[in-house]
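Provenance and format

Records in this collection were gathered into a single text stream. Each protein contributes a sequence line and a token line. The two records reproduced below are adjacent in the stream.
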Amino acid sequence: MGDLAFRHTRSVNDDGTWLVVGLGNPGPKYAGNRHNVGAMVVDELASRGSTKLTTHKARAVAATVRIGMAPGGAPGPAAVVAVPSSYMNESGGPVKALMSFFSVEADRLLVVHDELDIPAGDVRLKKGGGEGGHNGLRSISSALGTKDYLRVRVGIGRPPGRMDAADFVLRDFGTTERKELPFLIGDAADAVEMVVTQGLVLAQQKFHSPA
């Protein structure tokens, strides 16, 4: 597939395009892994925008969409949704290249990723802070020279027993988890939409409140 059809250029009256990046590892071997739930969320956002991810020269697959609904029912802000084609620990290069290509600033970068330290099925949001040992986030922070970007953290829970965390994230979701996975992906996609259309604080109030 070819490159995306446009390069975003910013005008003085334009707040700019968002870049929403879902983290994962490339190829069918990893597609169902817990570590790839961020990529699954971006696939959902592309589907909601009635489009599919296609190859981009920034070592990624990407699509242009409108995110959510603006007040009054108009289509939400423009966004590029993307998944790096590199392995997780090399995510920073593609993210930096996408930001350069589409003229996206760090305050409009939103990274969707799996999170061991959040209970399975929960979604949490933050801006900046540490990477918690997540190699994809570490690579992005290193490439950008800043940690000050938005994150949608998709809870996968801790591994059972003495299972190594690295083995746990590189295994497919279990049978019970797969039944709940569409709801988790939907919630995370909803969180992305709310951050983009209503801001981080309101989104945190919704997704961090007890059910």
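Adjacent record:
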Amino acid sequence: MVSNEEEKVTSQEQGEAVNPEVEVESEETEHGAGDEEQALDSRIAELEDQLAQAQEQVIRAQAEVQNARRRAEQDVEKAHKFAVEKFANDMLPVADNLERAVQSFEGADEASKPLLEGVELTLKTLVDALGRNNLEVVDPEGQPFDPNLHQAMTMVENPDVEPNTVLNVFQKGYTLNGRLVRPAMVVVAKA
């Protein structure tokens, strides 16, 4: 039989023998844990960078979608706004011809007065219909010349008016929702 003291010595010897191994393992574990922590930290940083890039890509994609939607809405709005432009261009010569017909009745006898009234009413109806569709008449007689709305056909000296004033209108112009459809053809006073 082994005595208690021998057991104590044996267990101490075993403990001493075990303790140095434990210390060596704990040092290796701490050293290994430090490497693992660094690896994890670098992996976390890498993943955070990837996340930031993905978030930036999402924001850009959302902005592109919003821009595309806005452009599409503007295209639809313009299509609605200017859908009658081709039709209006086809109707403008009709208005011009009716105006010429009214002018040709000047000085006519009383017998042609009902015909004149009919042509004037037809012209008024056409101009009103064009106006309801946002087609506005540009009749600049007596106004300053505006190259954005008027086309000068000729320039005439006239000391009674200021230079660059519209003296006469050969053909009225038209705008559709503020956009020029046809410029007014005018005679302009020169200095």
